[in-house]
Amino acid sequence: MNKQSLLDNILKKEGITFTRVYASTQERACDTAELATGRTDYIRLKGLKEMDFGSYEAHQEYLNPPLHREDGSGYRDYFVAYGGESNVQVYERMAKTIREVLEQSSDEDQLLFVSHGAINL
User: Name one Pfam family in it (predicted).
Assistant: First the structure.
């Protein structure tokens, strides 16, 4: 049993349900949303996508610079010079997306947001 199926079983056992499920437009995030919840009616949002690595996108991770783990700031603005995003840009994009969803939701809504990779939230 994989981790997502295990999570689906735990959620069902505990009676945890979600009014709506939101996922990044990335296939792996959509797969995780489906496997973790057993649902296919999730809403895909571009604002939940992982960090844009610019010209480093889809290359081997060993090419990435070292992470700044000491202060939790990840790659900082390294990828901006290569057409990608900074940590701050990723945070602002994702926070804006989540805020917009929350503004359209009621206090009773149970929401799940699914993303993958470098999200820095």
Answer: His_Phos_1
